[in-house]
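Sanity check

After download, print the first record. It should look like this:
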Amino acid sequence: MGSEPRTEREAVAQIAAEQEDIVQQHMKNVLDISRRRMHLRNFSRGLVDLYSNALDKLVK
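Expected structure tokens:
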């Protein structure tokens, strides 16, 4: 990740920054997964409604 740190303090700061980047990416991934699950759940409900309505019309 760039040039080598010159001091222990710089090394710790660099590691902390890298870990913060990892945490931020993880949180973004969690939000993306939650959003996709919500969309999939809504899509599934829509399909159930569609087929339910179609079956109701066939039965009538």
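If your output differs, re-run the checksum step. Summary of this record's structure: The helical segments are 8-59.
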